[in-house]
Batch of 2 targets.
Target 1
Amino acid sequence: MSTFNSIPRVIISHSPTPLEPMPRLSSLFNHNLYVKRDDCTGLAGGGNKTRKLEYLVAAALANKADTLVTVGGMQSNHARQTAAAAAKFGLNCKLILEDVHGTPKSDFYHNGNMLLDKLLGASIHRLSDEQNCTEYAHNLMTKLQNNGKKPYFIPMGGSNPLGSLGYVHCAQEIVNQIKEQAITIDQIVLATGSAGTQAGLLAGLIKAGVDIPVLGICVSRSGNEQVKLVSELLAQTLTLMGLDPYLAEGRVVANGHYYGEGYGIATEEMIEAVRLCAQHEGLILDPVYTGKGMSGMIDLCRKGYFSDKPNILFLHTGGSQGVYAYQEIF
Ligand SMILES: Cc1ncc(COP(=O)(O)O)c(C=O)c1O
């Protein structure tokens, strides 16, 4: 058993990230809406993966690794931030990036995150959406090891218990900012995918003894499947922190009604949400995660789902670089 503060971490993110009101968006939906700006974590455009990488890079350095290897979709924000962290710490970076069925194509392969990955010096292994990413990663790791390299593998989205610890810090920041700004938050909403952000955030709230409910809007699977994924990771994260995993009971909530036809495939509601935030708050969301997360929050506000929760905080997890890959749908 280890305690949270003894787990090695490198500092990469600009933090605390701001927690700001969204007055013009609030007036549209009859709620006090706030945003936690984790799109401003600072690493090559920022986003939620920067916090996870603080623990994952520390582990790679402790293992004397010379190469970071990770996997994701072709416009993965996680891949971009991993490439940037590798550059910052003098490590090589291998990105195994899958094509994503149903996404726009003209800029998808070259612009947005793909452009930045190349600028950051990562080497890219492009896979079709039929190739097996896990098997490819395993073979690449073996090949690098056989060539005398010391690769460190980071799972999809940086979502393992170690990576999730990054979001324990975000939870602590939110708790502090609520106090400093003398505001009330009744509900937190975020986009949830590989689950580490929601799991880490809940672990941090549990650690702080704060019971604000957290709603994950799914970007790739049903609510039930997502609850299972987040719950398992949350229990493992609490265990890693030396806390009782049963504290997770009843805390994981996810809604799978807003991702449309699949991961990365645009919905009309996402496009509306991205436009509304841009044109009312000067806030740029992304098409794959935060746009869909915000579309869920907006729809649930309109339907009165939060009628007993006037003060809602949206966690902006970054990804605005992705809009350049999706310009044809905007
Ligand atoms: C911008 C953005 N928001 C949200 C998420 C989802 O976070 P998680 O995978 O930890 O659930 C991601 C993951 O890649 C992301 O890039």
Note: The longest helix spans residues 161-180.
Target 2
Amino acid sequence: MGEIRVLPPEVRKLIAAGEVIERPANVVKELIENSLDAQAKSIYVETLQGGKHLIEVRDNGKGILKEDLPKVILEGATSKIEKAEDLFSVKTLGFRGEALSSIAKVSRITLTSRHFSQDRGYQLLARGGKAEYLREVAHPVGTTVVVEELFFNLPVRLKFLKTAKTERKLITETVVTYALANPQVAFTLIQEGKTVLELKPSSVEERILEIFKLDYPPFRVQAQNEIGKAEIFYYTNFRSNKFFVFLNGRPIFNKELQTYLKNKLGYKTLAVLFLEIPPYLVDVNVHPRKEEVRFLQQRKVLNLLGKLFGEEKTPTPPTEVLKSSAYTEYLKPPQFEILGQIEETLIVAYRKGFIYFFDQHLLDEVVNFALTRDETKACKSSIKAGDKLSKKQMEELLSRWEALGQPKTCPHGRPVFFKIPVGEIFKKLGRG
Ligand SMILES: Nc1ncnc2c1ncn2[C@@H]1O[C@H](COP(=O)(O)OP(=O)(O)OP(=O)(O)O)[C@@H](O)[C@H]1O
Ligand SMILES: [Mg+2]
């Protein structure tokens, strides 16, 4: 007798389900996508043991009708597309009708929902894909999904899960990704009873600032060409390299695109890129987890990105146009006490308990950019590293910069200064 045998259909189905849902973060992703598709304005995520014990996602979306509740855990059951052609005009995040059935097969799932047209809620409980009950319960309009005992019937998958700490990190990353793509939606993330994220509806910039606790807002550049629009937010002083790419609101991965961004932005850059390209030019059906996309006109997509970084770049200036008071004759003395210049590159100054190190070239460049609106001109006409400056020149530079509203970054997004609290120096000297 040979060694090969065909697996029974139940086992094959389980494995297929396990391919889409490999770990708790995949469950979180699918449930958040469903909440977003249901037009939720607020999404609450809670997990225990990195999702191994419990994953709960609660939303205030439109809810699920009582008669639809038992259907949602069936394979291929979706309200989002009807026929194959619809795949080319997918506007929702989900469309396969597989996520909930896959999750249900490998866990104990409790779906509680009240549709906006109903005056009461209903709850469905299923274990290993089999519905155990449907009952009436009190629930506000919206949906709560609780997933427990994940992979109880797939011991191998369970064994391959990482520590709760690692799984937690992946969950946080997932929630952060969707929170960046949907700043108009409130997100809460609670892990092991601790609040990890609590995000109110806001703008993209505010959301980036809040999530990553940046010192100053990211730079923003927009571009468009005949196939679509692109908008990028970037911050060049980050702890590592991190790129988020969203295509029509969907987080995506595309190797060429990642490489392109890395080449353009270099290391230590946080970038959030939004692309808007008509759905018929994008194939999202490449991978069952829908992360990988193929562009039908890749060259035009790269051309669109080129515009973000190339000649036609139009960065939003760090502040409003320079006011006339910034011209030398009207300048007020700076609020800084100039301490000196080091290595003919940095201006060192003191103000209110901090020692500031200014990059003399960038300091001059932001001022000139505000005056000329021309990056190349601003850069060329500015003081260079290596220029020896008198105290008067340094004071003038700082006065001009102050008159401008003290922009923290240059037109390329680099920080103009770095500061250290004098208190920290005292501490180092044992005076703290
Ligand atoms: N939070 C929710 N609010 C309202 N309806 C929901 C919610 N979650 C699921 N549904 C309903 O259940 C159906 C099945 O969800 P499921 O995630 O399995 O499939 P899908 O989202 O249609 O496609 P995909 O498998 O690509 O995610 C959805 O089409 C939707 O009608
Ligand atoms: Mg879905």
Note: The pocket of adenosine-5'-triphosphate (ligand 1) is lined by residues 30, 33-35, 38, 59, 61-64, 72, 77-80, 94-101, 143 (CB under 6 Å).
